Amino acid sequence: MAAAAAARINLFLNPTKPLNSKATAHFRTHLRFQRRRTKATSFCTRASAAPRHDDASGAGGSDPFVLTTPLYYVNAPPHLGSAYTTIAADAIARFKRLLGKKVIFVTGTDEHGEKIAAAAAANAATPAQHCDLISQSYISLWKQLDISYDKFIRTTDPKHEAIVKEFYSRVLANGDIYRADYEGLYCVNCEEYKDEKELLENNCCPTHLKPCDARKEDNYFFALSKYQKSLEETLATNPEFVQPPFRLNEVQGWVKSGLRDFSISRALVDWGIPVPNDSKQTIYVWFDALLGYISALSEDMEQPNLERAVSSGWPASLHLIGKDILRFHAVYWPAMLMSAGLGLPKMVFGHGFLTKDGMKMGKSLGNTIEPNDLVQKFGSDAVRYFFLREVEFGNDGDYSEERFINIVNAHLANSIGNLLNRTLGLLKKNCQSTLAVDSSIAVEGTTFKDTVEKLVEKARVHYGDLSLSSACEAVLEISHTGNLYMDERAPWSLFKQGGAASEAAAKDLVIILETMRIIAIALSPVTPSLSWRIYGQLGYSMDQFDAATWSDTKWGGLKSGQVMAQPKPIFARIENPTEEENGKEAPKKAVKKQRLPRDKRAVEA
């Protein structure tokens, strides 16, 4: 049986020996193609695995939490949108690690396709040279942004190619690949054929605003229409599969309007993975790139194998993507997985776009923001905090330099940084930088501990729900509570009174410093470098910071006799050009980024 099946597959894939077969009903779609006589022989259809929906917090269980960003297209260096997705993914990965979860954080680059070859030619480089250069620019930026990824996959990696071909053969064996002529309007930038009804005047792509090319090709097709009912059932019974909810509604609308089979090969594109046994065709970029989420799970030292890769962590717990590639991840990808008999990811989360000063960013408008420049100017903590705090995750967000500086100065420099600095200053002056009592004793007789613990739990729930902005706000509320307590108690005045008042003041400082310790842990998913600086000033080592978990946000960590470091600003205010223009004294520049501890610094590829 196996030999016969192999012979049928080989016969199908050899374009010089077409099979004679009539088209089946589920291949009748709205595509404008004329079917050739070649069609894959149908085998037994594998039952698709339903997506699993574990607790959003990620705690408990032995399965790894597999988190992915898109594999970024290397036609150009990284932009702010790709940086935003990756920052958000990193914050989620760091939070899951704090919960004690084994995390596999996957990112990488999508390096095949017509657009890549064109970009390389424009720069007088080979496609391979171009991909090496741009891929490295992503790795470099992720290091600057403290991105702690575990796997960086490139689609030009030989292990990826092997797994793509094996996956293709599975789908073929399931009877879901056939050959046909196709004529339509193709957007090179989208790497996709377009429906005339979705195009603008002069057949312009609504995303790239450029005319689509009229093309006629002999391609291999995936029978997406066959999975119409299965996808409808998945979306209806697993509403968390696509998030936020309004993205789910969008996907359900696409599916209900009718699914069309789509081309999974290109006859006119040389830079890609060859279709097995058909060197004249290359595999379509999306049918190639989506498999990177699985091929990334393969260990470098082992022979590439689809089942082995799947057993290393698939299905993914969370795909984080921009809303512009939602259709590929929430419609095409699950159908492909069903065809191959593999489990579906638990959740696809589509976030919004970023604008600048209320306007869409674009080179023609001259208002693009280079993420490298932003990090060099303001530092990774400021960039990470602003976008995760100010943009409600899932919705569109806006960047304004003035608001960026105001938010970062108010939250990181003033509310958090200044609270730590003035408290350590008072401790040095009055207590020789040494804690007088345990933090658990210092807080007795107050409601302060209860307030902080409620806010910590609030932050934990928000992180688990992917409400990153609300998580930042909850942690910021802790610092506001500390500042309010400091101002009401006025320990500087109590120290002057001496006696019992001075002892009370010493306890007040312990309470505030314990608050700062908790803030350092609770905010570390968002600002890892800043959190280490806080922890370091509280007298802890890098190893102790590395070992911290979410359970360490419980009150009582600081003990009597602990010696604090000498006070120095952990985040100095950023210069505000507007203040300078108005004649105000310009504050000092932000502190230079310091080395992150072992487990919390970015992982290099």
Summarize this structure as a short list of keywords or feature phrases.
disordered C terminus, protein biosynthesis, alpha/beta, methionine-tRNA ligase activity, MetRS_core, 605 residues, six-stranded parallel sheet, 17 strands, elongated, Isoleucyl-tRNA Synthetase, Domain 1, disordered N terminus, 22 helices, methionine--tRNA ligase
Overview of this protein structure:
The protein is α/β, with parallel strands linked by helices. The chain has a domain at 411-578: Isoleucyl-tRNA Synthetase, Domain 1. Helix content is 45%, strand content 14%. The chain has 22 helices and 17 strands. Strands 4-3-2-13-14-8 form a 6-stranded parallel sheet, sandwiched between helices. Strands 1, 5, 6, 7 and 9 form a 5-stranded antiparallel sheet that branches. A hairpin with a 2-residue loop joins strand 15 (354-356) and strand 16 (359-360). The chain is elongated, with a radius of gyration of 28 Å. The two termini are 43 Å apart. Residues 573-605 are annotated as: Disordered. Its EC number is 6.1.1.10.
Highest CATH level, the class of the domain at 411-578: Mainly Alpha
Radius of gyration: 28 Å
Low-confidence stretches: 1-60, 584-605
Termini Cα gap: 43 Å
Question: Given the C-alpha coordinates, what overall shape results?
Answer: elongated
Mean pLDDT across all residues, rounded?
86
The computed structural class is alpha/beta
Quickly give the CATH architecture of the domain at 411-578.
Orthogonal Bundle
Main sheet attributes: strand count, strand direction, barrel closure: 6 strands, parallel
